[in-house]
Amino acid sequence: MLHFILLQATASNPLLSMLFPFLILIVFYFFLIRPQIKRQKDQQKFVDSLKEGMEVVTNSGIIGKVTKIDGNVVRLMVDEKTFIRVVKQSITAENKA
Fold this sequence. Notes:
This protein is α+β, with helices and mostly antiparallel strands. Helices cover 47% and strands 30% of the residues. It folds into 2 domains: 1-49, no CATH class; 52-97, Roll (SH3 type barrels), CATH 2.30.30. It has helices at 2-12, 14-48, and strands spanning 55-58, 63-70, 73-79, 82-87, 91-94. 6% of the residues are buried.
């Protein structure tokens, strides 16, 4: 019975039938898109704040100390006298250990 009433209400009012997809889009934005944009901004802010001497972790889990920043390339010291070069965007976090 309730299903019939809802169908009758949506058939008579096209605005009500468009409300449900609109609500889905709003939920999708607030739970998926907006948090992703915030994470990207935070990551970009972190990458821009990189300094020499910081101990960082890359996407692949490599831990190293930043020794030189040359544009988009960062040189990490991963062991005594062992250096690797990575792009800035591959550095995900500062090592807190």
